[in-house]
Amino acid sequence: MQCGGNRDQSSNLQMGQALWRLPPRQQQQLQEELAGRLADRGGGGRYDHDGGPQRRAPQHCYGPDIYHLLRTCRGGNERRGFIDLQMLPPELGITILSYLNATDLCLAGCVWQDLGHDEYLWQGLCKSTWGHCSIYNRRLPAGFSYRRLYLQLDEGSLTFNASPQEGIGYFMSKGILLDHPLELAKFIFYTRRLNWKMLRIYLDERRDVLDELVTLHNFSNQFLPNALREFFRHIHAPEERGEYLETLITKFSHRFCACNPGLVRELGLSPDAVYVLCYSLILLSIDLTSPHVKNKMSKREFIRNTRRAAHNVSDDFVGHLYDNIYLIGHVAA
Fold first, then answer.
1. Are 237 and 249 in contact (CB under 8 A)?
2. What are phi and psi of 47, to 5 degrees?
3. 333/328 Cα distance (integer angstroms)
């Protein structure tokens, strides 16, 4: 009996592994065969009203039907709790755990140590949270662990959010980042765990990193207010006017023109004209969204005021700018 059980388990394992290498139709056939074997092993299948075996409705899917397999392994009894993932083929167990965050994956590792400490799971968590690190592109040393790397990245991000210079220094000391403006800019661009206030302080101090960060943006075929919103989502605008805000708008204006040469020729725009339009959009955003401004600027007033500073821009284009702010909202919110 034991030998027969081992053969069934080995057959199911091979079948589960085959699901990931076959076309969808053959995957479906193997799924049904695997589900049938699990149901027979669990004791008795379901029957319809005529006494014959009940046929499972065909399912149109392009991958393993994990939910059905779990239900079948439990014999349809919900009170028996969640199935032991070690009873499933490794591919299915890893797929289920891939939906967990780092905290839950650590807890899962206490129950299923081999699956919970799988390097592919922790590699996915690292790269989905910190999209770019210099260490990703280097040959990894012997004994390298993505789980340990995740903990270091998390520690470094917390340190950055308290002190930007110390945080970047921590990443460099661990070999995670190289001290190069482009590498630092890519790390910032593809990471969402950094505090925007601390990030603004760091970019104000490191203008070389700011220059590389601006060049990573692609504003091709984007309407000017939408492009400005995207820019300020990555590089937050300061709360007050000053030299740093002027620097940001200047760099954005040159980048926007570089990404849209056809639009620049068609509308007669220039970096200086875009600079003026960006300031007009920021002032209009404050005027239309601030509860302290009772007399809101009209579309006609905005067109008149903007045309005084940007003579080559058409009334229709400026009017579309006003409509965008009126309907969508602040460009730097």
1. no
2. -125, 150
3. 11
If one compares 74 and 266, the residue with the highest pLDDT of the two is 266
Query: Which tokens sit at 321?
Result: 């700018």
Q: What value does the mean pLDDT take over residues 31-55?
A: 52
CA distance 117 to 246: 48
Tens-place pLDDT, residues 191-221: 989 999 999 999 999 999 999 999 999 999 9
φ/ψ (deg, to 5) at 51: 90, -10
For CA atoms 207, 243, 331, 277, the dihedral sign is negative
Q: Which tokens is 300 given?
A: 């006609």
Q: Three-state SS string across 21-51, please? A: CCCHHHHHHHHHHHHHHHHHHHCCCCECCCC
* Confidence at residue 29, expressed as pLDDT on a 0 to 100 scale: 61
Give the residue from 256, 235, 260 showing the smallest Cα distance to 245: 235
Which residues does residue 53 pair with via DSSP β-bridges, in sequence order?
47
Distance (Å, rounded) from C-alpha 332 to C-alpha 281?
9
